[in-house]
Design goal:
This protein has 516 residues and is an alpha/beta fold. It is built from 14 helices and 26 strands. Helix 2 crosses helix 3 (64-75). It starts with a helix and ends in a 5-residue tail after the last helix.
């Protein structure tokens, strides 16, 4: 049982039974209610002929019931593989096949999409290889045992969850997260964020995203309240921040960029912690968030699904270093290597060193990709020569380009496979995007390298939103702040840039956009 989370919920149910635990737009459960629902869900899973270690894909909208099923699986040592609710049936089929799942647990809307189910129940269990699903009700609330149960210690090597991540190429891969990974990640993040029982965590990101599910585990582990909601437009954040008085909000650039422009952000009565991960947040957005919420702690973080979390920048350093992703987490070893796998040194005072690939070791490194031995061997490898942690046998090569300054702060420069080569010059998309974000009238920006129709290597195409952006003014601004070889060959305007299921800008979708 990972992170002793069920025992933590049990303790809260006995000591603070009426404290808010888990809510959505339809309901709030207190800790006594959550513990009782977990008992009912565990009993229901026991009736599905599942054994410890079995893998189950759960495909459902974000709700209290969805979280209860996920937690019940963890409690029973069943391995959940959450699927984003917006996936298509063929994508769910891929996930089922890749992880060799025993079946699909889905809510009624998703079950109807998957195939003719013939049932009219809130949930359905569709065993692999069968023609019809079995109807299931919402998890029933059962009484707690009269005495607390002794929870087993987490088994660091036992598989706990599967998170599917698409990366930049290929079909999505299932990252194998161990109980040790979940335990260490939950404790470390809850600790450095200073989460408290009186917090209200706004869980806005998808539960199929490790960063999104972490809002649930970290919040419940400390006895906080976790409020589940979805995000499409900035106004959707008014409910959690204003009505539910959330104290903690996690976001990707696709969420925090537009939020930083909302005049009502100053009205959020209790927001004390903002966290960012999932890509580069432009310095202009960092400045706007700090101006709107000077008393709110802003944590700039970095992590990848293959190792959950790697770094964070203490809030007191954000104003001086708004472009940094911070320092390595406690117990985590971070190195920067060149193309030959040799460790690079730090930069001079106030100056980041030579960029290279981020390599991470420590207790957060996942077990690899499920049923993908070649991809696992490519990404999860032996440490490079002179690795500081001599006890490490395996590290993860992130594929991300970073640099380090003399103080040990890291700076993100984008994906190695997204570097753009124009006329012999290598261009960082993030550098171009950062300048574009600072230009008047530009709210969103993504830079892509594409084949040059006139030959050569690539040409640089810049996508911006909104459509009202003044392109001539933007070009003048870019000429004043970027080198000649960094100027885009074309600028494409959009009403809004497309986003992936996890809220990041969707570079694949933009690559398919018709060009000028």
């Amino acid at each position: 049982m990972p992170i002793d989370l069920i025992s933590a919920i049990d303790r809260q149910a006995r000591t603070r039974p009426q404290a808010h635990a888990l809510g959505d737009r339809q309901q709030w459960l207190d800790y006594a209610g959550l513990a009782g629902r977990l008992q009912g869900a565990r009993r229901a899973l026991a009736g599905l002929d599942l054994a410890a270690g079995d893998r189950v894909v759960i495909w459902a909208g974000k709700s209290v019931d969805t979280v209860v099923w996920l937690l019940a699986m963890l409690a029973e040592d069943i391995v959940p593989a959450p699927a984003h609710p917006g996936l298509r049936p063929e994508q769910v089929d891929h996930q089922l096949a890749r992880c060799e799942a025993r079946g699909l647990l889905a809510d009624r809307p998703r079950l109807t999409q998957y195939g003719p189910s013939g049932i009219d129940a809130p949930w359905g269990w569709w065993p692999a290889g069968t023609a019809k699903p079995r109807p299931l009700s919402e998890p029933a609330a059962l009484d707690l045992p009269p005495e607390p149960r002794d929870a087993p210690r987490p088994n660091p090597d036992r598989l706990a969850m599967l998170f599917f991540t698409s990366g930049s190429t290929g079909l999505p891969k299932g990252v194998m997260i161990s109980e040790g990974n979940l335990d260490a990640g939950t404790r470390l993040v809850a600790d450095y964020l200073g989460l408290r029982p009186d917090d209200v965590i706004a869980a806005i990101l998808p539960l199929a995203f490790d960063y999104g599910f972490s809002q649930v585990t970290t919040g419940l582990s400390v006895g906080a309240a976790v409020y589940l909601d979805d995000y499409l437009l900035p106004a959707d954040l008014k409910r959690p921040l204003l009505r539910e008085s959330a104290t903690v909000l996690a976001g990707t650039p696709g969420l925090l960029l537009p939020l930083s422009r909302q005049p009502w952000l100053t009205e959020a009565p209790r927001l004390r912690v903002l966290t960012h991960s999932g890509g580069s947040l432009p310095v202009t957005a960092v400045r706007r968030l700090r101006q709107a919420r000077p008393a709110t702690e802003l944590f700039l973080m970095y992590g990848l699904t293959e190792a959950f979390r790697a770094t964070f920048l203490p809030p007191e350093e954000v104003d001086a270093h708004p472009d940094s992703i911070g320092y390595p987490l406690a117990g985590t070893t971070i190195g920067v290597v060149d193309a030959d796998g040799r460790l690079l040194g730090a930069g001079q005072p106030g100056q980041p060193g030579q960029p290279g690939e981020l390599v991470q070791g420590g207790p957060l490194v996942a077990q690899g990709y499920v049923n993908e031995p070649e991809a696992t061997a490519k990404r999860f490898r032996a440490p490079p020569p002179d690795w500081p942690d001599k006890s490490a046998e395996r590290v993860v090569f992130s594929g991300d380009r970073v640099s380090m300054d003399e103080a040990g702060r890291l700076y993100f420069h984008g994906r190695l496979d997204q570097q753009i080569k124009v006329a012999g010059f290598r261009i960082s998309p993030e550098e171009v995007e950062s300048v574009a974000h600072a230009a008047p009238g530009v709210e969103e920006a993504v830079a892509l390298g594409e084949p040059d129709p006139e030959g050569g290597n690539q040409r640089l195409v810049l996508h911006v939103a909104p459509e009202a952006a003044d392109l001539e003014s933007l070009r003048r601004y870019l000429r004043a702040h970027l080198a000649p070889y960094q100027q885009p060959a074309a600028i494409v305007v959009h009403t809004a840039l497309p986003r992936s299921a996890n809220g990041k800008f969707d570079r694949r979708a933009l690559s398919a956009t018709e060009r000028p």
